[in-house]
Hints:
The chain is α+β, with helices and mostly antiparallel strands. The protein is 40% helix and 15% strand. The protein has two domains: 3-37, no CATH class; 52-90, no CATH class.
Amino acid sequence: MPTYDFMNRDTGEQFTEIMSNSERVKFLTENPHIQQLITQMNMISGIPKNDDGWKENLSRIAEAHPTSTLAERHGKRSSKEAKISGVLEKHGLRKGKYSMDL
């Protein structure tokens, strides 16, 4: 539940309460002498980070689908596979269409 900052207009006292939005609306209508203070929102993180479990899952999917774009980004390849896919990409060919024995 979010926290809200309030101020009592009569006494000038400031306090913080933890309540849902519906409880906040009800609280403010029942107490006209209470004013909600506008404060800055707390941001936990601006950039989401992937944990190792998610990276491992992407790697597992990439291994199951070696010709996908996901495999190009997250898959494990040998140096021979990397060279072959580099040559095919250079000449505009797809690995799945022109399969070669590795």
